[in-house]
Amino acid sequence: MSKSTVGFDWTTILIYLLLVIFGWMNIYSASLGDTPSSIFNFDEIYGKQALWIMLSFFMIVILLSIEAKFYMRFSSVIYIISLISILGLFVFGKTINGATSWYVFGGVSIQPGEFAKAATALALANYLGDIQTNVRTFSHQIKAFLIIAIPALIILPQPDAGSALVYAAFLFPLYREGLAGIYLVIGFIAVTVFVLTLVIGPLYVSIAIVVLALLSLFIKRNKRPGYIWILIGIIVGIGYSYSVDYIFQNVFEQRHRDRFNIVLGKEVDARGIGYNTNQSEIAIGSGGWLGKGWTEGTQTKGQFVPEQHTDYIFSTVGEEWGFLGTSLVVLLFVLLLLRLLFLAERQKSQFNRVYGYSVAGIIFLHFMVNIGMVTGILPTVGIPLPFFSYGGSGLWGFTILLFIFIKLDAERMSF
Amino acid sequence: MRRLLLYIIILTTGFIFLGRLFYLQIVDESFARLSEDNAIKVVYDYPQRGYIFDRNGELLVSNQPSYDVMAIPRNVKAFDTSEFCRILNITPEELSIKLDKAKIYSPRLPSIIVPQLTKSEYAYFQEKMRNYPGFYIQKRSLRDYQTESAANVLGYIAEVNRKIIEDNPYYISGDLIGKQGVEGQYEEMLRGVKGVKYIQKDRFNRVIGPYKEGIYDTLPKKGKDLTISIDAVLQAYGEKLMLNKRGGIVAIEPSTGEILTMITAPSYDPAQLVGRKRSPNFTKLYYDTIARPLYDRGLLAEYPPGSPFKTINALIALQEDVVDIHDRFSCSRGYVYGRGRKLGCHPHASPLDMIPGIAQSCNAYFANVYRRIIEKYPTPQQGIDVWAEHLDSFGLGDYLGSDLSTGRPGKIPNSKYYNQIYDYPTYKWYATATLSNAIGQGEVLLTPIQLANMTAAIANKGWFYTPHMIKEVDGQSIKQKEFTEKKYTTIEPRHFEPVIEGMHQVYKSGTAASLNIPGIEIAGKTGTAENFTKIGGKRVQLTDHSIFIAFAPVDNPKIALAVFVENGYWGGRYAGRIASLMIEKYLKGTITRTDMEDWILTHSLEEEYAKPISGEPFTINK
């Protein structure tokens, strides 16, 4: 250990351990077959996950022994290796569940996209941390966006829209570092118009845009934007709405449309496309206050919820641990995220702070999208719940992401 | 602001999630119900229904396997429907309707396509099974009757209807339940308790094992075997004697109250109401409103008891101390009372005292006796109520409270009844107005089992056990208080001697002198009861009912019985002969008087029964 080490943040480490262990208990229950065997039976899903957890502890030791400066110095190299690894998928990748996101070595499959997030976070931190970078200038913004967009655009056509979506999380560090708030506002408006277009159609959205624009004329002259900007806003808004409709109807595949339609309440189809969400809600809803008890979930045992040990693991928590369990998990995540923000804010270097915000942003986005999906608030987007869902690559990816930051935090005085 | 934004978003998201989870898990309970519905399947394990044995340990009812042809619609492939229909004896239309219904019920779950195959249908279909993917055979248990008689005693099994399911949570749709007779009365003992298994299903409705390792599961409890008091041989013999006649016979063992036979005629073979034939056969029996084979005359038919009722009037008179057995009354082919009305009688020696009065069944004698009973009290109301109370102690005029699945109270009129019909106090009425009661005609109505029980009480000299059918449960004698506690009549034992002697004389010198059984002393009483029907709204008299009561042997009664033969004319003609043959069969095991047996077997009353429905004018009592 370096003399500048001020100590690891044990709060974060404790929350990490609680999530990983509680996660494993639920994976155990969700993947428990008829014949329970040793928890280290590596033919079983829970056995494999136990192994991944062991190995990730081993990896933590390595991550924490590497000097913090290494991560900054080699961030570009790590980023480029990471890009090559996800590009290589187009040649060597194996398709699992419809997404060509995997390398398979022998019996082990690895998802390089899970590691690319940490690499991108390092690269972005490195770029924004550079004394010459000013995020308020347009050319630097473009470069920062490129760092984020390149891996996302490589992952998107695999196709893995869920993983690509996660890169939106980097807006948080960018905003923290001074990106104009208008980007977030425009992003928010874009999402709202997008959703409204799907729900009520582009015509009504266009009318609403025009009405809002006319109403803006009543704002005090000195506070309102110029007429030309209002006109541009109307044109862009309407054009966007119609192109969303066009893209939705003509570019999206039916399964994507279905996923949105269910969440928007346009299709109630419990046996068809909405099956996942519906079963997940039934499983969670059947838990009550205290749940049915560990490994006692009838929905879990009956495997009514598809992908329950991976993306839908939270439904097992809901069924077997009840509201007590689900609220505990939500609180643990909220605590972890708030702690990460607190840690990020106390960093001396911009590199560390950007990285910290990236970590918090990525984990938050997963948390929000995953639990939103499992509880039926958000559309079905297949991304895992950090530290919880089954999968070695995912677990390692998040472990690396988190523990690099813990190491950075521990050595924050040396910058 | 730049520092706070993400904090705010995180906290907001956390709160939204907690709210959503609170709603899903605590507020909205529909999810919990859905969960039970789709993940847990309840499977019942039906125990063997208990066997029924007769009093001599002879097996009457057991179980036989039955085979239902089941189908899981989504597994059914195209098949040769014409061959299928031919083997199973159904029409292609029926098959297609059944398959459509099954598909609507569930494509993944089994439905019954053809219920309850016979063994031969099953054997044949089993060989062709491989030609019909998606079909399979499910074994069930049905009743197997080892006897062709006693259908009314045994009752039958039917599928539960909606009302039963609503009233009794034990039963679910498709369950079987005993109806009527022993099956109905002892349903809970016979059926046992079905076992329940909670089975955990997966999303394809496949079974993946017991729910919670089976902690909520219960094992089925086998039904109890019952031994009933019926003597199967006597029952079958009685039914044979009653062929082509209508009426009821009830025989009781006086010392125990056990019902030895309970016959109704016409009847049917209990096996008719089993399996696939049940439904059409039941319909046929049910809609035979003329012969009414489902109507248990032994328990339900309320007949005027006729002369056997005189015995009880004699007992009441002795108890009320209004006659001495040596008091003689004269008879001039009848008894004349008020304004030239006359209660007729047949020719016999006159005057008579009690014993020959019973033996000769003198109407005039009993008219006098009856008047003395009623007129002992200041008002006829008081008199008749005292009289009715004595009758009540014999179990007459009310339900017996037995283990029989059905019954009727009969009718014993009291002062309230007569006050009402005579509009008292506007009009007064006197003993003479109720004089028919003296000879068991008029208002008095009794069921055969009430009359048999009355005979048993006479045989016991003043007490009886409530007549019952249950004898042993799983080999253990019954302990129910209502069947093992003596019920005493209001008549002192000493008064029974002369009446029994009178009944004995019925065989020695009286109206049944031709019906003696060599070597057995019998006490009995003939009865001939006028009866009426309505044809086109008009009251029409029919040929008299032939009635007989008897018990034997006189000094140690082993059997007491009552026989009603509808429209059999006088008591000795049908009922007396049948009673005599039944007693001989029961006490001796063989019939010595085969000429009498032949007479009964070869004589039919169908012609008599056809008269009132023929629409033609007819004569009676020929």
Automatic annotation (TrEMBL), chain A:
It is a multi-pass membrane protein. The keyword Hydrolase does not apply. It comes from the Bacteria. Its main location: membrane. The chain crosses the membrane at residues 7-29, 49-66, 78-96, 145-170, 182-215, 227-248, 321-342, 354-381, 387-406. Pfam families: FTSW_RODA_SPOVE. The keyword Transmembrane applies. Keywords: Cell shape, Membrane, Transmembrane, Transmembrane helix. It is found in: Membrane. PANTHER family: CELL CYCLE PROTEIN (PTHR30474), PEPTIDOGLYCAN GLYCOSYLTRANSFERASE MRDB (PTHR30474:SF1). This is Rod shape-determining protein RodA.
UniProtKB/TrEMBL annotation, chain B:
Residues 46-209 form the Penicillin-binding protein dimerisation domain. This is Penicillin-binding protein 2. Residues 247-580 form the Penicillin-binding protein transpeptidase domain. It comes from Gillisia lutea. InterPro entries: Beta-lactam/transpept, Beta-lactam/transpept-like, PBP_dimer, PBP_dimer_sf, PCN-bd_Tpept, Penicillin-binding_protein_2. The keyword Lipid metabolism does not apply. SUPFAM superfamilies: beta-lactamase/transpeptidase-like (SSF56601), Penicillin binding protein dimerisation domain (SSF56519). The chain crosses the membrane at residues 5-23.
